[in-house]
């Protein structure tokens, strides 16, 4: 899909396992992963990232929590109560490997990372205006929703449609394109590869 839609001549795309990066030693300025590191084989990936990074290159691992919030007019509290019900309904379908949160994978990696220059941020909010359909689409992209969809497609659609109707009713609107402010809570770790001896 990326290759099909590329418009910049200085961007290329390759598909490969995270633990087998197709780059020369010390050739990359930045290795980053958004909401994927927890699925990697951590130790081989970190070794591979270290191998390909240039001296002073940066490793950036980012993820978000399910604690997303919606703001719309004076009904934000009611919206977020409904949103929490959505997340609770999806919890039984969460991959057992992740536990209640993937947070611990990132925090453990930060604590064990042997880079002298590193940074840990365990919570920062990003809030932006999106169409309401964008919020629903994001929740439907969660691995827990996808697991429910695979196990019981009818139940997954029923749950999403029910939550959608309740949220629209609470906002007093009917259009899925109504603009809401979506708040997403992120955490990240950064590490700077030291200069080689």
UniProtKB/TrEMBL annotation:
CDD domains xrefs: AdoMet_MTases
Recorded coiled-coil stretches: none
Pfam families: Methyltransf_11
Record InterPro entries: Diverse_substrate_MTase (IPR051052), Methyltransf_11 (IPR013216), SAM-dependent_MTases_sf (IPR029063)
Superkingdom, taxonomy of origin: Eukaryota
TM annotation in the entry: none
GO MF entries: S-adenosylmethionine-dependent methyltransferase activity
Domain Methyltransferase type, residue spans: 2-60
PANTHER family: METHYLTRANSF_11 DOMAIN-CONTAINING PROTEIN, NOVEL PROTEIN-RELATED
Protein name as it appears in the record: Methyltransferase type 11 domain-containing protein
């Amino acid at each position: 899909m990326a290759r099909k839609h590329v418009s910049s001549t200085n961007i290329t795309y390759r598909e490969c396992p995270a633990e087998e990066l197709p780059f020369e030693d010390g050739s990359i300025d930045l290795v980053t992963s958004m909401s994927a590191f927890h699925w990697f084989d951590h130790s081989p990936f970190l070794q591979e990232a270290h191998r390909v990074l240039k001296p002073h290159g940066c490793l950036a691992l980012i993820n978000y929590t399910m604690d997303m919030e919606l703001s719309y007019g004076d009904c934000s509290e009611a919206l977020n109560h409904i949103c929490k019900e959505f997340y609770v309904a999806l919890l039984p379908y969460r991959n057992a490997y992740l536990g209640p949160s993937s947070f611990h994978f990132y925090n453990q990696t930060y604590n064990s990372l042997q880079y002298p220059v590193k940074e840990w941020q365990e919570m920062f909010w990003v809030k932006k205006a999106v169409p309401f359909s964008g919020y629903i689409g994001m929740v439907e992209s969660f691995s827990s929703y996808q697991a429910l969809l695979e196990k019981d497609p009818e139940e997954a659609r029923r749950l999403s449609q029910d939550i959608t109707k309740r949220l629209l009713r609470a906002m007093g609107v009917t259009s899925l394109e109504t603009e809401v402010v979506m708040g997403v809570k992120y955490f990240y770790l950064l590490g700077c590869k030291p200069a080689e001896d």
